[in-house]
């Protein structure tokens, strides 16, 4: 099995950019990170699906398994695209709602979480 080096480098760049954007504290950058990461995973699934082949529906009966493309990879990618689109719409709606309430796009720390974190830091773990 051979792999396309250009696609592998593209997958790596998309994954790195997606993780970097996902770690930001701005909702729109998080959304872009999720979309880039999703596209990288889709390209990875397509690359691992094997080389190009004949359409699986038009293959002959005797050589159907030898030179036909695996339709499972395309079906999984299509499902992932639909799920990513729904997730993107949900995150966009959450970002819009948060922007309407706070007029900022930054995600701030919850005061109660900060209080619990400082309380845990004061506790001595050896007692």
UniProtKB/TrEMBL annotation:
Compartment(s) of residence: Cell membrane
Pfam family, one: Oxidored_q2
Membrane topology: Multi-pass membrane protein
Cellular component terms per the entry's GO annotation: plasma membrane
Similarity comment: family membership: Belongs to the CPA3 antiporters (TC 2.A.63) subunit C family.
Gene3D superfamilies: 1.10.287.3510
Cited PANTHER family: ANTIPORTER SUBUNIT MNHC2-RELATED (PTHR34583)
Major localization class: membrane
Transmembrane in keyword set: yes
Keywords noted in UniProt: Cell membrane, Membrane, Transmembrane, Transmembrane helix
The protein, known as: Na(+)/H(+) antiporter subunit C
Domain of life: Bacteria
Residue spans crossing the bilayer: 6-23, 30-51, 71-96
InterPro entries: CPA3_antiporter_subunitC, NUOK/Mnh_C1-like
């Amino acid at each position: 099995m051979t792999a396309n080096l250009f696609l592998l480098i593209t997958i790596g760049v998309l994954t790195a950019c997606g993780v970097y954007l996902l770690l930001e504290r701005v909702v729109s950058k998080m959304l872009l990170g999720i979309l880039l990461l999703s596209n990288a995973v889709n390209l990875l699934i397509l690359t691992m699906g094997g080389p190009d082949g004949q359409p699986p529906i038009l293959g002959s009966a005797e050589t159907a398994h030898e030179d036909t493309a695996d339709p499972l990879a395309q079906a999984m990618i299509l499902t992932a695209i639909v799920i990513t689109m729904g997730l993107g719409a949900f995150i966009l709606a959450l970002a819009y709602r948060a922007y309407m309430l706070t007029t900022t796009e930054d995600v701030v720390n919850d005061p109660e979480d900060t209080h619990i974190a400082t309380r845990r830091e004061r506790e001595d773990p050896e007692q």
